[in-house]
């Protein structure tokens, strides 16, 4: 190939290379320095999708993208909504706010459902209010507290919730809070659930050790709940999670 041909090939490669760079580009919108979680950042991808990260680990995304329905956040929301179909005055409790993804979908699908969200970090709350539509939630009680301490301080929550979502993640490995799969915590949490209530556990599934921990948790739950199901979700962005659904 002569120099002219090489030049033409090089010129032809420029548009696809620019397109790839455009697709990969992620810009930082805002960051927060939290004494509880560490470095919290809000990023935005080429397509407008926002990402919430804690110490560079992805904790949630915005819910307006077309393929959001392939995510585990959407799966959690639809699992909760299915359980709530015939409930009067439905009540949902989220332990952990993340990027307000599953809770945002529930609000969008059925704003009559009352949601209580417990989040320990004020900067997570602030980020969600600024960038993840938390301020648009229409039927919400937000509690800024440590869920592990709150569990002993709210007798008014006894038999209150139709659905409880356990989604407590941290800013350090293994990222999921390991206290959430311990029997003492689960037994206390179970008291907040209604007689036929559903408890959903969000668990990471990127490495085999995490999946083994999930199997142990599911085995324990089967001794306490009448119906336990584990679903593996892998969405196009690469997130991998096991979702355990347990019905009393």
Protein model, in words:
- There is one protein chain.
- By secondary structure, the protein is of the alpha/beta class.
- It has one domain (66-247): Rossmann fold.
- 32% of the residues lie in helices and 31% in strands.
- It contains seven helices and eleven strands.
- The protein has helices spanning 3-24, 72-84, 101-109, 122-131, 147-150, 183-190, 208-221, and strands at 26-34, 38-45, 50-54, 57-61, 91-95, 114-119, 140-144, 161-166, 193-204, 227-234, 240-247.
- The strands form two sheets. Strands 7-6-5-8-9-11-10 form a seven-stranded mixed β-sheet.
- α4 links the parallel β6 (114-119) and β7.
- α2 packs across α3 (101-109).
CATH superfamily: Vaccinia Virus protein VP39
Write down the overall mean pLDDT: 89
CATH-derived topology: Rossmann fold
Order of helices and strands: HEEEEHEHEHEHEHEHEE
Please give the domain count.
1
Please give the CATH class. Alpha Beta
Shape: globular
Radius of gyration: 21 Å
Helix count, DSSP H or I runs of 4 or more residues: 7
Query: In the CATH hierarchy, what is the architecture at level 2?
Result: 3-Layer(aba) Sandwich
What order do the strands of the largest sheet run in, or round the barrel if closed?
A: 7-6-5-8-9-11-10
Structural class label: alpha/beta
Strand content: 25-35%
What's the helical proportion of residues? 25-40%
Low-confidence parts lasting 5 or more residues at pLDDT below 50? 6-10, 15-23
Number-wise, the strands total 11
Main sheet properties: 7 strands, mixed
Distance between the termini: 72 Å
């Amino acid at each position: 190939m002569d120099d002219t041909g090489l030049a033409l090939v090089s010129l032809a490669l420029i548009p696809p290379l620019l397109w790839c760079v455009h697709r990969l580009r992620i810009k930082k919108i805002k960051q927060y320095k939290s004494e509880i979680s560490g470095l919290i950042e809000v990023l935005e991808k080429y397509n407008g999708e926002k990402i919430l990260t804690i110490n560079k680990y992805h904790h949630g995304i915005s819910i307006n993208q077309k393929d959001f329905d392939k995510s585990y956040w959407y799966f959690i929301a639809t699992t909760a909504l299915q359980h709530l179909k015939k409930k009067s005055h439905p009540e949902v409790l989220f332990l952990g706010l993340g990027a307000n993804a599953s809770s945002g979908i529930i609000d969008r699908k059925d704003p009559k459902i009352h949601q209580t969200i417990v989040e320990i970090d004020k900067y997570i709350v602030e980020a969600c209010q600024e960038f993840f539509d938390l301020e648009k939630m229409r039927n919400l009680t937000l509690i800024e507290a440590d869920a592990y301490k709150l569990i002993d301080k709210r007798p008014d929550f006894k038999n209150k919730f139709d659905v409880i979502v356990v989604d407590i993640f941290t800013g350090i490995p293994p990222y999921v809070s390991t206290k959430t799969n311990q029997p003492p915590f689960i037994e206390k949490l179970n008291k907040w659930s209604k007689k036929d209530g559903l408890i959903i556990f969000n668990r990471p599934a990127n490495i085999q050790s995490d999946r083994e921990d999930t199997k142990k948790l599911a085995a324990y739950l089967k001794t306490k709940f009448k119906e336990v199901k584990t679903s593996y979700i892998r969405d196009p962005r690469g997130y991998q999670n096991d979702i355990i659904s347990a019905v009393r």
